[in-house]
Every structure is written in structure tokens, then in C-alpha cells.
Amino acid sequence: MIKVSLIGKGKVSQHLNNVFDKTNTISVVEVLSSRGDLISKINQNNNAPQVDIYIIAVSDDAIHAVATQLAQTKSLVVHTSGSVSIQMLPEGIRRGVFYPLQSFSENCSIDFKEIPLCIEAEKQEDLNLLNNLAALITNSVFEISSKQRKSLHLAAVFVNNFTNHLYQIGGNICKQQNIPFSILSPLISETARKVENMSPEKAQTGPAIRNDTKTIEAQINQLENENYKKIYRILTDSISKKHEEKL
Amino acid sequence: MIKVSLIGKGKVSQHLNNVFDKTNTISVVEVLSSRGDLISKINQNNNAPQVDIYIIAVSDDAIHAVATQLAQTKSLVVHTSGSVSIQMLPEGIRRGVFYPLQSFSENCSIDFKEIPLCIEAEKQEDLNLLNNLAALITNSVFEISSKQRKSLHLAAVFVNNFTNHLYQIGGNICKQQNIPFSILSPLISETARKVENMSPEKAQTGPAIRNDTKTIEAQINQLENENYKKIYRILTDSISKKHEEKL
């Protein structure tokens, strides 16, 4: 049995709590609010068994302040953030990271089994503990350093945040012509599905990769929104390899 | 039985041929290459039964030239392009459009049942015929005008071509840190899946929508590729609503 204390009551904490609850081998001893005096809350829980892992699932900016209050603990302390280094946790404690690479929404259940869990720790025994914890909820565990995680989080901004915004623009273009957004659904799914078996380079289609300047110019003229025109141009240029593919 | 002649041997033609073949009610009488003298090819097929519909599945630029050769036919003549107007087919014939809204790849089978088929015709009887043909292969038939179709095609460029390019950028960012592209797969799928039940506006997460300028600046600095920096900035600006949402 792995005993866990969850700190924070946001989406990540809720999702972890739900999936931990479904196992017989992870016990969520407490879910603490990150606000106020954490130490006294933990001390009030004297009757609770000592936890193996504190999981700090709070906003990036709050991680340091919360973790500082745990500077005396002998348990493993991890945060769940994609962009915060392990170094943000106090020196001298057993520290680590437990980052699920997924975009969580509130009223949206999720199958954890396929979610990549990115783990990091300084000591092998802590890494083993995180690996055991992760393997109880997902089939996909990766040992990822803080530096790698920072890049992964940035990549996630492109494939999730920015992609979703392109869906929004597509929807707006349809709306102008009284076409329902749902007509785009199969294309959106297929675009995502395709890169499961094929690199995005190979999957690329459309006027930009064909250098079909006639269609490109016609489509830019068709857009009235200056912002959409700019986005169209810059992504078209990027696809047609006018820029070096260097990070 | 609907008798069809397919003109063109590209991806769309191949996919239509495959899916028509699976029905007992659509007969593909011939598949003609669009190159050379189409009329003589059709005349060589004198023994073939007369077709109900000629489906011109060739590149946009070739549609007009191919269709001109069919100026004498009494059958319905349609093209399959998202961006070409019905007017590009010769006046005086029964003309229409049969546009499957999907991105087809060569060695990639596809389930047609969910693909939206956008049909257009000038006469009600031709619209009925196209509707019958479409309903035999998909559950999703839309009557879409040339003007609407042009917008739909543009929306598809955003949600397919541009989205796929963002996958490529995400993959390149991972590659720099020796992280496999496949780690992004569940996030890519979930991002697509989410907008089946939720508008992209509601599904939007990340630093841009939170106006988290600290993370935004850090991520821009993290990118070394000037092109990626520009894409990051313009999409972040767009998400944070610095621009009017006007087409």
C-alpha cells in the first residue's frame, strides 16, 4: 500500500484522487487545501498514518511556498508541474516530480491508463517509489529530467493549446457561413489519429506543402480578419520550409 | 443501382472507388485517367452501360479542362474539390459537387461512414441523386453551396494542415531533448476528442488564456528557432484576445 497526501484541490488533484481511489494499492490519506497554514493542518491529522508521498498539485507559482512548509518531512515530496524544476522544492528533503502529460478539464473523466507519467527524483529508491506509484495507474511511465520536462511542456503548448486555438478559428470561419462546427469533427479526429502511425512530416497535406501559391493567395484574400491572415501566412511559410528547422 | 464513372486516379478517386465497391448499389463502370483524350476513352467504352454520374476527382487546376470534354453528356457531372466553384463546370450540362471533407492519404484506409459529404447541384433531381449516392457510403450528408464550401475548405486548412504542422513543431521540440514523439500522442488525441463535446473556446487551457506572462516569456526565450518564436507569439496573442474575433 502506498500512502499519499494530496495538496491542492484543483483539477490535477481531483483527477489523481479519482484514479488513486480506484486502485486497492494506493491510499489517499488526506486532501489538503494549499491555502493557509499547511503545517498545522498536517499536524491536526496526527491520527492519520504517516504518508509515503506528498503530492503538491497546486499552481506553479504556489509550489515553492507550499513545499517550504514540508522542509522537515522525511516523506518524498513531489510536484505535478510541467514547467517547474525539481530544484524549486527545498534542498535537503527527498524531492521529485510526478507530471502527468495531459490537459485536464473539470467535468471530463479521463482514462489514465494511456496518460504518460513523467517522473523524476534524485535518489534511486525515490525513483523506484514513483515508478511503482505511476505504474499502478498508467501503462506509460517515462523518466524525464527537469530540462526535458520543460521542453515537453513547451511542446504540449503547441500540440494542445495552439492546436485547440486553430480549432476555434476553423469553427469561426464555419460559423460565418452558418456551417456547424461539428462538420469539422471527423477531420479533426483523423488529423490526430494519422500521426499515431505516421510522422507529421509525412502526414502533411494542403496548399502550403504543395507550394500552391494560387490557392494560398486566394485563401489569404478570403480571410477578412487581419489576425487570421497573419496566422495563415506564418504557418504557411513555416510549412513551405522557408525557415530552418532548428529549435 | 447507381452507375458511376470515376475520372482521375489519385487518392480521392481511389478511396471513392474502394468505398463504392463495397456497396451492392453503386457500380463503378470505369476509372479513367484524366490525361490525354478523355472523349475517345469514353467512346472506346461504348459497350459499357451509360453512367449516371461522372465524378471528376482530379487536381483543382485540371477540373475545367476535363469537364469541358464532357460538355455533351446528359449524365450528371460533379467534381470533388473543396475550393472550386460549381461554375467551373461547363454551363448547360447537369453539374454538381461531391466533396468529401477529409484528408486522404495513400496507404491509409478510412471509415467513410463518418466522413461529411458536401453535395451541391443546380436541379432538385440532381441533388436527390447525389444525396442518394452519398447516403450509401456515409451517415453524414450536407447540402453546401460553393460559397460555403470555400469557407469550409479554408477552415479545413486550419484544423488539418496547420494543426498537423503544430504536431511537427511539438515533435521537433521533443526530438531536441531526445524525447520520442509518441509521448505526445495521448495529449494530441485528447485535444481532438475534447472538442467533440465542448466548444474550443471552453476547452482552451494554457498560459495564453490565463495571461500567464511569466510562463509565456520564459517559453519564448526557451525557443531558439526564430520561426517558432514568431508562431508562439502570434498564436498566444490571438488566444489572449488581443484581436477582434472577426472573420
Task: Tell me what you see in this structure.
2 copies of one chain form a homodimer. Chain A is an alpha/beta fold and 247 residues long. Chain A contains 9 helices and 7 strands. The longest helix of chain A has 30 residues, at 146-175. The radius of gyration of chain A is 22 Å and the shape is elongated. In chain A, 45% of the residues are buried. The mean pLDDT of chain A is 92. At the A-B interface, helix 5, helix 6, helix 7, helix 8 and helix 9 of A face helix 5, helix 6, helix 7, helix 8 and helix 9 of B.
Low-confidence stretches of chain A: none
Task: Give the end-to-end Cα distance of chain A, rounded to a whole number of Å.
Answer: 43 Å
Quote the beta fraction of chain A: 5-15%
Shape of chain A: elongated
Oligomer: homodimer
Helix tally of chain A equals 9
Query: Structural class from helices and strands of chain A?
Result: alpha/beta
Helices and strands in order:
2 copies of one chain form a homodimer.
Chain A: E1 2-7, H1 11-21, E2 26-32, H2 38-44, E3 53-56, H3 63-68, E4 76-79, E5 95-100, E6 117-121, H4 124-135, E7 141-143, H5 146-175, H6 185-194, H7 200-203, H8 213-222, H9 226-239
Parallel strand pairs in A: 1-2, 1-3, 3-4, 4-5, 6-7
Antiparallel strand pairs in A: 5-6
